[in-house]
Design goal:
Layout: H1 3-21, H2 26-39, H3 45-50, H4 62-74, H5 78-86, H6 91-94, H7 102-112, H8 117-125, H9 137-149, E1 157-158, H10 159-174, E2 179-185, H11 186-189, E3 194-195, E4 197-204, H12 207-214, E5 220-226, E6 230-235, E7 240-246, H13 251-259, H14 262-274, E8 278-280, E9 283-286, E10 289-292, H15 296-302
Parallel strand pairs: 4-7
Antiparallel strand pairs: 1-3, 2-4, 5-6, 6-7, 8-9, 9-10
This protein binds three DNA strands through helix 2, helix 4, helix 7, helix 9 and helix 14.
Length: 315
DNA sequence: GAGACGTCGCATTGAC
DNA sequence: GTCCATGCGA
DNA sequence: GTCTC
């Protein structure tokens, strides 16, 4: 895969981040969608551009195609340069800080003049952030914690590296007698070469016991959150693991939903709408009535589709 | 050309 | 303490 | 900004 694809995607993500700060909503999604398409492209973006078929990429229309062309020809994108010049803050670094999104970044700038991570770190250490609307003492310490984590954050893990971990967790949960089903979903189930995190789906009559077991597996660095149906933690090696517990009646729909890909879900959802249904992680509904949900096969069948293997759910 | 663009659980605040 | 609104993340 | 209707 040409390295250019990755660069183009990165640039589009950056444009999205800056637009996000300006309060744009749908353009942001549009740029991120285009970026994701290009990441997943099987051909080199340069070849696609040469044959003038950029607009055939999902999410790429006239405007973005033009910008990609510009970048491939000149190595720059004026649109992004302009956004950067206009922006008072360094979105690239600030947006990478956990728990900070566009709204909070904007507020930190307006109230404290925070433009980059150095300013942020200083403000947090001086306890200036607590007290701002929407921030408390806890938010402040989370920011500091996240700033300390920057290096270990965000890498993707080779599949081989996570298989033993996934299996360990799966076996541990499966051995519990309140657990009916366990599946490792997400890109792991789609058998991608790398995974960003591990997603685990469980059916159980006693979610709280499952949560408890999950939060006590070996090798936990820290937990990110825990609720009745959902928990997230980070292992010593930096891998994030998310757990979700659902009812048996929703198992199939949840499998589909959490296995993804996102594109695949969007496609299914559209097909569902066209047929007068609504599809979500809980099931396939006609009005308020669930017509399918306990198995994947059932949901696909009801949508008029043959079963699609997880590996083939990229689009 | 107009209108939609996913949706929801969780953490945290802040009001009561 | 409970309940709500908001932002974030997925 | 892009896609669908």
């Amino acid at each position: 895969m040409a390295a250019k694809n990755y660069q183009v995607a990165e640039i589009l993500y950056m444009v999205a981040d800056y637009l996000d700060l300006e309060g744009e909503e749908f353009k942001v999604r549009a740029y991120r969608r285009a970026a994701r398409s290009i990441e997943n492209l099987s051909q080199s973006i340069e070849d696609v551009a040469k044959s003038g078929k950029l607009q055939e990429i999902p999410g790429v229309g006239e405007a973005i195609a033009k910008k990609i062309d510009e970048f491939l020809r000149t190595g720059k994108m004026e649109h992004l340069e302009k956004l950067k010049r206009k922006s008072p803050v360094d979105m690239e670094s600030l947006n990478a800080v956990e728990s900070l999104g566009p709204k909070k970044i904007k507020l930190l700038y307006q109230r404290l003049g925070v433009r980059n991570v150095e300013h942020l770190s200083k403000a947090a250490k001086e306890a200036k952030i607590r007290g701002l609307p929407g921030f408390g003492e806890l938010s402040e310490s989370k920011i500091l914690q996240s700033l300390g984590n920057v290096s270990s954050n965000k890498r993707r893990f080779p599949r081989e590296e996570v298989v033993p971990i996934a299996e360990m967790i799966r076996k541990k949960l499966q051995s519990m007698n309140v657990v009916e089903k366990v599946e490792v979903v997400g890109s792991y189930r789609r058998k991608k070469e790398t995974v960003g995190d591990l997603d685990i789906l469980v059916v159980s009559s006693s979610p709280s016991e499952v949560m408890d077991a999950f939060l006590n597996i070996d090798g936990i660095d820290h937990t990110i959150g825990e609720g009745e149906k959902k928990a997230s933690l980070v292992l010593d090696n930096g891998l994030q693991v998310d757990l979700r517990v659902v009812g048996a009646e929703s198992y199939g729909a949840a499998l589909i939903y959490f296995t993804g890909s996102k594109y695949h879900n969007i496609r299914l959802r559209k097909i569902a709408i066209k047929k007068g249904y609504k599809l979500n992680e809980y099931g396939l509904f006609k009005g308020d009535e669930m017509v399918a949900g306990s198995t994947e096969e059932e949901v696909y069948r009801e949508l008029g589709l043959d079963y699609i293997d997880p590996e083939n759910r990229e689009e």
